[in-house]
UniProtKB/TrEMBL annotation:
Sites bearing 4-aspartylphosphate, chain numbering: 56
Taxonomy of the source species: Bacteria, Pseudomonadati, Thermodesulfobacteriota, Desulfobacteria, Desulfobacterales
CDD domains given in the database record: LuxR_C_like (cd06170), REC_NarL-like (cd17535)
Residue span, Response regulatory domain: 5-121
Keyword Phosphoprotein annotated: yes
Tree of life domain: Bacteria
Native source organism of the sequence: Desulfosalsimonas propionicica
Example GO BP: phosphorelay signal transduction system
Pfam families in UniProt: GerE (PF00196), Response_reg (PF00072)
One Gene Ontology term of the molecular function aspect: DNA binding
Protein name (Swiss-Prot/TrEMBL): Two-component system response regulator NreC
Amino acid sequence: MAKIKLMLADHQPIVREGIRALLEKESDIKVSAEAGEGALCFKRLRETKPDVLLMDISMPGIDGINSIRELKKASEKTGIVILTMHQKRSHVREALHAGVMGYLLKTSPYEEVLGAIRAAAEQKYYLSTEINADIIDNYLKRETTEPFASKYDLLTKREHMILRFMAEGYTTNEIAMMLSVSPKTVAKHRTNLMEKLEMKNMATLVRYAIKIGVVDVDSDYGAGS
């Protein structure tokens, strides 16, 4: 079985060395390239075309999310996993929309780093459990404080959450990743909730969500991007 070709990109040599030392013990992963700044990152990515790029978007020469889009163009089949200190939900959302396959915190345990690398190599999403728990907890807390409309009250708790994610612009795959279910399951919930609410398209659904207070128009998210 072919090993996963991994590229490491972080401006701190000690971080790269530490990750490399751990990954050398894994039989299915091979570190094929490294970079400590933006220009070299792009160069090595184009040269080696790794299966996975594990990177910090705070490196010199990397313009955050905009650079993610350019990196995807440089090597379309490379799964990008972000390893960062930024955990605001708006940062996570923007990164997912830009095309990353995984989002980890630098406080994430090694097992999550491995999980994200292996998932990205198969073009599957992976979200740090800490971030995932924070997002879900945020929505559950809002569940007890928001106004209810009669039709909205017909939805299950899972449908409530999916409605919010949809209205805030998340894709089916992104919602599936955050809820740890399959895209088909999300699609089924989406069909059910739209039938219950008698909504025919996303535009009317978003307006409805804003009207009843499910989505805060002044929040980090907004509807779509």
